[in-house]
Amino acid sequence: MSNFFEKSDLSRNDANDIVSDTLKKCDDGELYLENSKSETILLDDNKIKNSSYSSDLGFGFRAVSNEVVAYSHSNEISKNSLKRSSDNLRSTLKSAKGIYNHSIPKSNKKYYENINPIEQKTLNEKIKVLNEVNNYLRSKDNNIKQVTANFNGEQKSIEIIRSGGETLTDIRPLIRFNVSVMVEKNGRKETGVYGIGGRQSYDTYLKDNNWKSVCDEALRIASVNLESKPAPAGEMKVVLGPGWPAILIHEAIGHGLEGDFNRKKTSAFHNLMGQRVASEGVTIVDDGTIDNRRGSLSIDDEGTPTEKTVLIENGILKNFMQDRLNARLMKTKSTGSGRRENYRHIVLPRMRNTMMLNGKQTQDEMIKSVDRGIFAVSFGGGQVDITSGKFVFNCTEAYEIIDGKIGSPIKGATLIGDGPSILKEVSMVGNDMMLDPGIGTCGKAGQGVPVGVAQPSILINKMTVGGTKL
Amino acid sequence: MVKDQEYLEKKASYCLDLAKKFGATNASVSVINSISETVNFRNKKLDESNRSDDLAIEISTYINKKKSSISSSNLLNENLDVLIEKCVETTKNTPEDEFNSLPDKDLLAQEVKDFDLYDETHFENDKKIDYLKQLEEFASNDKKIVNTESSFSENKSNFILANSQGFCKGYKSSSFSASSVIVAKDENSMERDYEYTSKCHLKDIKDAKSLAKIAADQTIRKLSPQKIGSEKISIIFDKRIAKGILSTFASAIASSSISRGTSFLKDKIHKKIFSETINIFDKPDMLKGLGSRSFDAEGVKTDTLQLVEQGVLKHYLVDTYNGNKLNIKSNGRCGGTSNLYLENGKITYKDLLNSNKKSLYITETIGHGSNIVTGDYSVGATGFFIENGEFKYPINEITIAGNFKDMFQNMILANDLEFKYSTNSPTMMIEGMVVAGK
Q1: Are residues B318 and B211 in the same domain?
Q2: Does B204 share its domain with B246?
Q3: What are phi and psi of B417, to 5 degrees?
Q4: How confident is the model over B210-253, as pLDDT tens digits?
Q5: Average pLDDT, chain B
Q6: Which of B220, B247, B262 is the C-terminal boundary of a domain?
Q7: Residue B167 CA to chain centroid, in angstroms?
């Protein structure tokens, strides 16, 4: 547990007094303190290229009055610095005349252990694994021209002090292990990337030489791409594999269901609550409570316990994801979705682990039903314009489907679709739901936060594939 | 006020001394303080105010050819003591890399030139509010506009870069930025667009009225878009998208990508990679330039480079480590380019629009569709259908795709370059790209 006041001229009592005094006439707000330690150990081009460690300490002080947010952050945890922030907040909210909302739900549930993953494995052990990865891959296939592998570990301690002195804390471990290979054959180069991670120690993910399967997967994707043909261009049927391809759900639906865009009516979904937005059989939840997952949180960054929020039930839009501010203005409750990248940023409603639940069909049935289309297995990333609802994602492993059979691999192409209508085009939902391997980071308003996704295989009747072959 | 040079220098030399004491043979350190104040408006009302005061220190320690680094936002000496000791310990345990070194002493900048990058004016929050009130007034004139958001930011920063070879320099800089984001709606669609201005000096930013007007016009004309069929067609990239293509070129010639062999432009030095009308410059000494600098992130002096001359690639962007590896000298591009731009073409914007019977004008792309290993490019796009030089109707939900190797050879530029960002391009036309739509 971090003691934020140990080496400061600011005592806990001083902090409580300043917070309570500053937020007196505000509707909400808090002092958020954060201490994070992180490391990167990177092997690249046969060498340990980077061994770095970072320690970041700071506070963010927020006051909310009606719709207005005043925020001030600093790295200096001192009396002067907190007072300067307080003055800054007050000057913005001169005319505030709200009543502070003290109520915040409580829970003792923890979805990860209080560990520091960085300390649980020595530098030499980490370097040893990275070298083994490099040797294993380079001896496995002569086409391999480049190997990059890295460990990223973090422990973040947070403390939230609300008006009246109520205090909420959390300690969040997070790791990621990643392997990227570049292969070259007959002058053609392709890459393959794979990674694993979550909120446990490195060794939990790497036991039984599990690093080898990460290497094998990265190499498999790169090798498939060496044989790929130009992708087709135009509208066609698309079968998505289970697991990580659920970033489609994240982009197409997830962002548009975040509370802020709907309060502001800038989301294409803002007037669709209670209506059909997906085919029958499609149920989507956003769940912060799965043990040790990358997107899980015991409490969100406002102190609200996370939950499993049903967004779409059997095709009908049921809930938006809310932080305290947007929940209050939309007269509902926070879903524990208030998140921030770190103390430098304000809280926004964000996704945690976004999942489409199982249906009844098999992947086989889906592929057999397609005359001409593509089968997309893995993706690089996606993006959405929440106002127009248009979203894209980039395939990193995909195949053409001809007459119900999987054909040749095709080159990385962008797929584009329309968020509010795409889920109505889902005609089959598989029974093979999978979680992603724990590698996702979601960007919004310049803030990146770790997230997860999951889905079974699905068949989409119509999507535009952005290839080069007409 | 941002911390002064004396405070930053003191911290830097404290770290260098300490690194030496713990056994480092060399070290480098940067100390940065930046303070920014931002005010946001939404639908003519104050929405958010944000003040940030950021300190950051980054230290790299070397023991001969071994290297490790740390960073922290906690500049208390007792914290630095612990971190630097840890950093040197990690360095000892990190394997040697023969290419690790500080830059050559004779490449280091001898002076900090004054490029007029700092405007000490403090634009009080009340004045920011006045600017935004005016902006929002002009932005919401049209009935179709359903949401307006605008923002004004002031940033002041100061830094010191120092190393154990005696380099110790830094300078202040400032920026003032404003933006307007508009959402408009009609019976068929809802669309968003924006306009943005950012300058080192307050007096140089765009006035609130024209910023709002541009943002509003750009949004309204996007309403009721159509989806078009798949075909091969000429694409005209608006300047704000064209600069992204130039940035991709810059990442493909970064010495790190070249030395690792992971760029489609590897082995292309002194070869013709663009059509011969294309010239690309990286010019670090522009007065008030958003990317201007006297030296790079390692202290190496930066001179103007003509990266591409009549279509021929003349330089990579080289830092010390990758320079050692490629056996070439650093050209002061650790941390990337400065003021990077494509030189003006020969024809006017109007003539560019007219050069084909029909073409697509792209104002926005989405997705991370640039692959610098293969050169493949595929992104989602929004824009307009152009016929006989006229904007006919808005289009969306399409993708555009090609390969940079071909796109560079088929590039034609208008003569409308302006220096709005640190990377800039005139309006750009690329012939023969594939559009996927219906």
Answers
A1: no
A2: no
A3: -60, 135
A4: 999 999 999 999 999 999 999 999 999 999 999 999 999 999 99
A5: 96
A6: B220
A7: 26
Largest CA distance in chain A: 73
CB proximity under 8 Å: A 277-316 to B: none
Could B46 and A92 be called an inter-chain contact, meaning their C-beta atoms sit closer than 8 Å?
Answer: yes
How many CB atoms are located within 10 Å of the residue A123 CB? 20
Closest CA to A189 of B253, B371, B406: B371
Counted domains in chain A = 1
Measured between CA atoms, the residue of chain A closest to residue B55 is A75
My answer on whether B252 and B197 are in the same domain is no
Q: Does the residue A433 lie in any domain?
A: yes
The answer for residues whose C-beta is within 8 angstroms of residue A457's C-beta and 6 or more apart is: A239, A240, A241, A242, A361, A362, A363, A366, A430, A432
- Say what the pLDDT of residue A1 is: 54
Is residue B231 located within the same domain as residue B197? no
Concatenating the DSSP letter of every residue in A76-124 gives --SHHHHHHHHHHHHHHTTT---------------SS----TTTTS-HH
Nearest CA in chain A to B265: A189
Q: Is residue A131 domain-resident?
A: no
Beta bridge partners of B359: B234, B386
d(CA B391, CA A429): 42
pTM above 0.90, yes or no: yes
Domain that holds residue B315: 225-438
Question: Residue B25: left if φ>0, alpha if ψ -120 to 50, beta else—which one?
Answer: alpha
Task: Report the domain count for chain B.
Answer: 2
Do B203 and B235 belong together in one domain?
no
**CATH number of domain containing B36:** 3.30.2290.10
Chain A residue nearest residue B149, CA to CA: A264
B60: Cα separation from own chain's centroid: 25
Residues of A in contact with B259 (CB under 8 A): 45
Rounded alpha-carbon distances, angstroms, from residue B380 to A178, A394, A413, A414: 28, 10, 10, 7
Q: Evaluate if residue A2 carries a pLDDT over 80.
A: no
Indicate yes or no: CB of A388 within 8 angstroms of CB of B192. yes
Please indicate, yes or no, whether residues B421 and B400 belong to a single structural domain of this protein.
yes
Strand-pairing partners, residue A177, are A151, A196
A351: its two tokens: 């996704």
